[in-house]
Amino acid sequence: MAVPLGAAVALVALLSGVAGEWGLYGPGGPGAGWVAAATLAPAAATCGSGPDLPAGWGQDPHAGMVRVPAGQIVLGQQGAYADERPAGAPQDVTTFWMDRTEVTNAQFAAFVQATGYRTQAEREGAAAVFQARPPGQGGHSSAGAPAAPGTAGEQVPNWWHWRAGASWRQPEGPGSDLRGRAQHPVVHVTLADALAYARWLGRDLPTEAEWEHAARAGGQPETLTREPRDPQGRPLANYWQGVFPDLNTQEDGYAALAPAGCFAANGYGLYDLIGNVWELTRDAYQGPHQPHGQGDLSALRRPPVPGRTVVIKGGSFLCAASYCQRYRAAARHPHEPDMPTSHVGFRTVLRG
Hints:
This protein has a single domain, classed as Alpha-Beta Complex (paralog of FGE (formylglycine-generating enzyme)), CATH 3.90.1580. The protein contains six helices and eleven strands. It has helices at residues 5-12, 42-46, 105-115, 120-124, 191-200, 208-216, and strands at 65-68, 71-73, 91-93, 96-99, 126-130, 160-164, 278-284, 310-313, 332-335, 344-345, 349-351. The longest helix has 11 residues, at 105-115. The chain is globular, with a radius of gyration of 19 Å. It holds the Pfam family FGE-sulfatase. Residues 132-153 are annotated as: Disordered.
C-alpha cells in the first residue's frame, strides 16, 4: 500500500510524546505477553461498566460536561522541560464547559453513525500504531530499526509502525476491534477528525490555556520529579510504572489504555486529564522543544516545519518517571495535526 507523502513525513516527525516513550499494548494487543505480571488495581475491575453515553446525550448541550470556573493562569512551570517555562503575564480564562472525560469510542461511534463521517486514517488506510520491542532488543538506540516510508533510508525507532488498516475502529490494525472498549478513549483521530466531532455537537477543542487551567483545578503545577500518586502511593492516573521501557509493573491495572474515568477526578470534577492519552488542543505549537535523548524522532526533522504542529497536553499511558515525565498539567508537546496515533485522543469544550 502506498503511504501518503504527508503521512510518511509526519511519521518520521512523530513528535507526539514519543521522545523517550515506549510501552506495551494491553490484553490481546501487540506485546501483551511482554509486560510484567501484576494484580489489577481495584478500579480496573469496576470502571467502564456504566452506560456508554452520558445522561442527556442528544438533548442536553452540556451532556457529559463539567462547568469550569473563570480564572487566571500563567502557562508552564519552572524546573521542568525547556518548553514549559512560564510564559509571560497571567492569561484570563472565562467560564466554559469541558467534557468530563476524554471522548470515548461510544461517543465517537454515535457521531459516525449520525453523519457517516470517515476519519483520515480510514480514508488513507493506515495509522501509526505503537508496538513494543521483543525481549532482547533492549537499549534506547534506534540503530537497526527499519526506515519509515519516504525517509530516504534514515533510521527511526522501531516501536512505531505505519500499519495498514489501523483506525479508531481497529486500534491495533486488522484483527482488532472495539469489543469491550466502548468506554476507552477514541484514538487514531487527527485534528480535523476531532474538530468535526466537536462541531457536530456545537463545541470546540480547548485552547492550551483552557486545558491547563482546567487540569490544574486551582492548584499549582506539579514538580517534575513527583509521580501522580495518592498519599498511600497508589497511582492516580494511567501512566507507566516500573523501569521504562523494560518493565511495566501495571500498578495502575493497565498495560495500555484504560476506560475513561477510572481514576479519581480533579478538583473541578474532570477525569484523566493526566495520563491515558495525550489530548489535542486547537493551539499551534510555537515553543522550543526539549529532546529527551536517543530515540527522539523530532531530531529527524531539521528544522521543524513552522505551523505544522499543534499542542497536545497531559501525557499518555506511555509516560514514565524513569524517562518521560509529562504526566503533568504544565506538560506540553508538539503533534502533527494530520497524524493518527494510538496514544492521542481529545475532549471538547463549550464556551458561553
